[in-house]
Each structure stands twice: as structure tokens, then as C-alpha cells.
Amino acid sequence: MNFAIFGATGQVGQVMRSIALERNLPIDELRFFASPRSAGKTLQFGSRVITVENSYEADFSGIDIALFSNGASASLELAPKVAMAGAIVVDNSSAWRMDPQVPLVVPEVNAAELAKIPKNIVANPNCTTMVCMSTINTLATNFGLLRIVGSTYQAVSGAGITGVDELANQLERGGNRLRELTFYGNCLELGDTSQFEEPIAGNVIPKAGKFVDDETVEEHKFRDEARKILSLPDLRVSMTCVRVPVFTGHSIALNIELESDFELEQVRKLIKETNGVVVTEVPTPQKAAGNDENYVGRIRRDNTVANGVSLFISGDNLRKGAALNAIQIAEALIDSGRFT
Ligand SMILES: NC(=O)c1ccc[n+]([C@@H]2O[C@H](COP(=O)([O-])OP(=O)(O)OC[C@H]3O[C@@H](n4cnc5c(N)ncnc54)[C@H](OP(=O)(O)O)[C@@H]3O)[C@@H](O)[C@H]2O)c1
User: pLDDT per residue over 281-308, tens digit each?
Assistant: First the structure.
């Protein structure tokens, strides 16, 4: 099997490289691509040293699976070219997710969608959607799903390496004055706010992504992607997406309204048995960071509706939220016999 990683120099690309090694992907040839800025750099992969290629000057023939994490605009331009050259592209960006001819896949939930890949492109869901899809699917399958209301707590790494740098720089610049600065509401002194518009150190920002209407792009993505993945086109979803000063690990507080009644113990048991999920009393992004599983806790009744469940989930946005899911899709494609 010949693999390629596009965006190999980025955060998700780096995690893809380490997960590909951890999971022993059956790799013969492996190529790394990035922007022209990184062309010629070398990256280690196990015992191999691989030179990063310029994505705009390469010959793409011979690649079987191309894992993309190079942003939506690069993906819009490059994915069709790589797919035309014969590879199946598994894309992490938002570019293709809502294309009706592109399956949007969480293998634990809807791997069957991989049977048809008309454009040779498969999309990976948004990292926030991914944190909770398996859990919500378990509830939907067993009790029917009517409505989701939630708030997210999204890490800065979800906004790329520039988001990580912005928080790190603000923390460094604030130093031991951060307490005083935040106490007096004087955080403007923390410097660059180009990524998040407001200071992120010592703060929370209830606007993740740009406004589309009175909702943000992240809030739209959650609703649209959940409907497509769960095959529930009319699912009612109300989400508030919030950026928090956490480096890695997205969290989400959910109120889920189900169609039929349930025993809480039965809900806990079913979630515990869900693939890729760990039930814990207090899930946190730190617990989740570096791990493959999504951590689910605070499972309780929401008595404001007839059949309501409240819970809290934390997951690593760079692993299951991006790189791991893409690699699990690649594994499912290989297992399906498509390349034999
Ligand atoms: N971060 C997350 O939690 C997360 C989760 C799910 C999905 N994603 C998606 O994954 C993608 C990458 O995220 P990231 O956090 O890894 O970002 P990142 O750290 O900023 O890395 C971006 C990567 O894309 C490459 N790139 C940037 N512009 C390019 C262009 N015009 N042409 C070709 N390559 C280009 C970069 O190459 P250079 O090094 O040469 O600049 C780098 O390898 C994004 O689409 C993002 O939406 C991210």
C-alpha cells in the first residue's frame, strides 16, 4: 500500500505520522506533502527519513490512500487532482463534508457509507462533532433522537498551530501578571489577538469561527454534520461553540432529548459498551489528550423534557477528532478489500 500525508508538517499531520506508526499501517511507500514553504524539509518516520514535497509541483500517480490535513482551500484545489490520479483521499478539512457525493464517516457509526465513494474522496467530520458522534449514535439507535442542545469548550489547537501560538504567547506575555490583568479586565495588554479576536488567555470566547448568520460556522458544522452522519436530516440541534484557553482536547456539554423512556443505568451501560468511549465520573480535556477514546461523564437525567439525558464529553481533537479517525477510515478501506 502506498500512502501520502498532505499537511504532514502540521499538527494533525504530525499526529497522523505517529498514529500510522503506532497502528502499524501496512505502508510500502510513504510520501509527505506540504505547502511550498516546507518543500525540501525532512521528517522522520520510524527508521525512514522522508523529504517533504511541494503539493503544487508533484506527480501524484501511484498513491493508494492520501490522508489530507492541509486546510479547506488547499484541499479544494488538490484533492480532486490526487483523486483523479487514482488515490482515495481522506480529507480532514470542511471542504467536502457536505458534498452529497462525498461520504462523511465515523467508522464506529457509519462505515457502511464507504461502499460508495463516487469522487474518490471521503470526508472526516469536524473535531467537535467527532467528540460525541459515537455516544449520540448509541442513544439514537436505542431510544430515538429528537433534539440536541449543547455548549462546546474548544481547545486552541482546533484552530491550527497559529491558535496554539497565540495562547502560548499570551500566557508568556501575561506571565505572573495574568491574574492582575484579568482581574482588572485589562487583557488587551496580552498582545496579538489575530486568531481569536479577543484575548484567549484567562478568558472564554463564545464565538468559534466566523458568523454565518446569527450562528457561527462551527455551530452550523455541528448541526449539518450530525444530521448527515446519523442520517437524521431533520434533527433539531442548538449549539453554542466556545473557545477556551486549553491547548488540546475539545469538550462538550450536551442535553439530549430522546423519543422513548429509558433507565439511567441502561443508558450508562450502553455508553460504556460503545466503541471508542470511556465512561468516567469527571471527563476533562487533560484526561483525553493523547488518548484515542472520548471520555464521557456527568451522565444524568435532564428533567426539563420528557426523556432527557445530560452528559459531558472530552476528546482529543487532534487524535479521534482528526488524525485517528482518518487512519481508521483508511483501515476500514483496506479491510473492505478495495485494494486487493
Ligand atoms: N487542529 C484540529 O483539531 C483539527 C481537527 C480536525 C480537522 N482539522 C483540519 O486539519 C487541517 C490541518 O489542521 P492543523 O491543525 O494540522 O493545521 P496546521 O498545524 O496549521 O498545519 C497545516 C498544514 O497544512 C499545510 N498547508 C497550509 N496551507 C497549505 C497550502 N496552501 N497548500 C498546501 N499545504 C498547505 C501546512 O504546510 P506548511 O507547514 O508548509 O505551512 C501544514 O502542513 C485543517 O483543515 C483543519 O481544519 C484540524
Answer: 999 999 999 999 999 999 999 999 999 9
User: What is the 8-class DSSP label of residue 117?
Assistant: -
Amino acid at 333: L
Output the 3-class SS for 61-94.
CCCCEEEECCCHHHHHHHHHHHHHCCCEEEECCC
DSSP per-residue letters across 317-329: TTIIIIIHHHHHH
Q: Give the residue-averaged pLDDT of 82-105.
A: 98
Domain positions in the chain are 3-125+323-335, 128-160+201-317
**Nearest CA among 215, 254, 242 for reference residue 154:** 242
CA–CA distance, 29 with 231 (Å, rounded to integer):
36
Q: Per residue in 114-148, pLDDT tens?
A: 999 999 999 999 999 999 999 999 999 999 999 99
Q: Does residue 16's CB lie within 6 angstroms of at least one atom of ligand 1?
A: no
Best residue for ligand 1 mutational test, from 5, 6, 11 (most atoms within 8 Å of Cβ): 11
For residue 54, what is the enclosing H or E element? strand 48-54
CATH 3.30.360.10 fits 128-160+201-317, yes or no: yes
Architecture of domain 3-125+323-335: 3-Layer(aba) Sandwich (3.40)
CA dist 285 and 322 (Å) reads 15
Q: Report how far ligand 1's centroid is from the alpha carbon of 8 (Å).
A: 8
Q: Is the C-beta atom of 77 inside 6 A of ligand 1?
A: no
CA–centroid distance, 157 to ligand 1, in Å, is: 11
Mutation pick for ligand 1 pocket among 52, 92, 221, 247 (CB with most ligand atoms within 8 Å): 92
